[in-house]
Amino acid sequence: MSTPAPVSMSATLAADEVLARRRRAGERVLAMTSGEIGLPVHPALRERLAAAADENAYGPVAGSPALRAAAAGYWQRRGLGVEPGLVVAGPGSKALLFALFLAIGGDVVVPVPSWVSYAAQARLVGARPVPVPILPGQGGVPDPERLREAVTVARAAGRNPRSVVVTVPDNPTGTVAAPDTVRRFAAVARELDLVVVSDEIYCDLVYDTSGPAVSPAVHAPERTVVTTGLTKNLALGGWRTGVARLPDSDIGRALHTRLVSVASQIWSSPPAPVQVAAAYAFGEPPEITEHIARSRRLHEAVVRAVADRFTGAGAALHPVSATCYLYPDFEPLRAHLAERHGVRDGSGLAHLLLERHGVGVLPADAFGEPRSSLRIRAATSRLYGDSDERRTTALAAPDPLELPWIREAVERIGEVLSGLTNSTARVPARVPEP
Amino acid sequence: MSTPAPVSMSATLAADEVLARRRRAGERVLAMTSGEIGLPVHPALRERLAAAADENAYGPVAGSPALRAAAAGYWQRRGLGVEPGLVVAGPGSKALLFALFLAIGGDVVVPVPSWVSYAAQARLVGARPVPVPILPGQGGVPDPERLREAVTVARAAGRNPRSVVVTVPDNPTGTVAAPDTVRRFAAVARELDLVVVSDEIYCDLVYDTSGPAVSPAVHAPERTVVTTGLTKNLALGGWRTGVARLPDSDIGRALHTRLVSVASQIWSSPPAPVQVAAAYAFGEPPEITEHIARSRRLHEAVVRAVADRFTGAGAALHPVSATCYLYPDFEPLRAHLAERHGVRDGSGLAHLLLERHGVGVLPADAFGEPRSSLRIRAATSRLYGDSDERRTTALAAPDPLELPWIREAVERIGEVLSGLTNSTARVPARVPEP
Fold it and tell me: What region holds the Aminotransferase class I/classII large domain (chains A, B) (predicted)?
């Protein structure tokens, strides 16, 4: 390369650092910027990490046999059986995604909207993201017809898209693409000979456990790489652990060789003590499964309450069915926001919420949407308490909204939003789901 | 990019995995391939990691304030004072080096020989390595005159070298570039406007503590990035922790911004519990300093004994003055090796040593030397014992060569080498240092 690749700080992490500084300065802030999960480490995992503190060898680049076997079992229980030899562990699924883009090469198709780092990572490896919009309310998966069109146009223009990334369930929208959309998407990805990189880190956070998200690996098993980690379901972001499941096919085996080589040159191996605890977690003993179920119910309760405040204030919002994210659209209030607050885009709206009210959210352009969009993403995962004691209480609470610190946070959001939009509906009716 | 970057598995890690498989299969192997340090975790660090097992937040991308302050103090005590705001921590100095190459952009000048991953990382980020030989016996730093020539030629050919990486003390040669060489190198790097990336991970492993290695940051402070970690001095490779010290200059501050952005998109933050223990280690309390001193003395004793076996067998070897590496050259035995064993290059020699004798070493071409070279790199750091008990005993031993398992390993190397070369000198005289 002759000039360094363009790169900007991860929008979520940057916003988090700004909020942390304001909090340290004594300001009252409501952090809804990043999806960091503000919940404690499960005691069993804490103990296993502590007991593994003498593990100081690198071990295999792809992760320990125990961790890979546990991850394979985790996928097996979800209908995605895989041999442990096709599992690669890394220091976070973010690092694995970056290494995958490097290993696959070519340009990367990204949904619009999508997580802040896909497009940034693609640019870092010298690729260009090919943006393709989602279908309304079906976040994380590019509209299959527009995918075909965009890739055809890109190839005709001499570009070389080789992969497409999807997020099932989705960040930022908190929605889950319908099974039929995933099926049609997978068929088009095969037709276009694209490798599918399916980020399923929110897989365990679908509220309705009777209807789990469908992975594209079901429909295009020969070309779909699945990644996940323990950052979201077990709040272990700071431990840095993720796993990738490679397809059992020629594509998959060739990619496995390249991915492990890339990993060996960038990070050597995932942190060894963390691998021991991660292997335990992926084994899904009942105490861990129950912990995840509690966090899922907590997210659902708080997300729904916050969603009511947004819709009550007049924002449009597709029903959230997974994760800890909301992606409300203030388009119905565009005239009012412009006239009353001089706000004309998502960035202006996020700025107003932060500067005037101490409420941190991210504008939609961080997720690849046009700057003019009045969408924002809000995460509820930092509202559960500012001490481990409160967070533990929140996890165990039958109705988390009865806890004063959570109720206050939700009410504060309601007040800020109704103040912003002059709405009077302070406790709006719940919006029915389809 | 239209095709994926070329990449091969890290030679050291690949060789390690082969040896581990052979050992599991019950074969007798002597692992001298990788520089992984086979020594136990210091109990104080083990305790601190265990106590930090509830740390699950990402924290700042650049690492915790405590870790950055501790690393700044570590450098301050070595005459390289820096404000903590210019320190960036990552999951291993390997990851930091990769991110630095990405952040700096352009082609990368690498010494020949040099660590297996610099050139591989440069290729991964789409750059081309510009190889420049070292001066004899002064490993890790390109010959200043040949550096000027190579960069001038590369620029005339339209290439854009923007950085040069050095290793002080050096892997693979176990030597330390002379202060005057470093001074002249730094002057040429400034003249050529190159950013210097100085990998100083072996800084604490110079045998003669009265004459530490000189960092190029002393002579070109405005353009030298220094990296280090705890992998070598405290045997914490599996914990994945490293730090970078950026220059206090316009170059340094611009690079800091880019480096943190790259880090935010690849790994988010270093593993949080490890950061707590690393902060303690970089604080250098007496128990840690003493532990490092013991490991340094252990390396020295075993390296010197093994070096004697190599020179006694007729290989040429520049005196080793740091690290746990030897880089003997079998050129004086070329005719004999070809005639008797059909060995014509380093790769053939390494193959013979492994297949016939179970002795794992790496050929010089892994370090960028011509394939025809008869140099190999041998690391002693896995000879200290195969249990934590033996390793702890080795660390404490006044004369480690009196321990039966270390003596046996050294003697076995001697036997293999004399068998290979028909030399009779089984306990050769020590080669005098200059």
Answer: 47-380
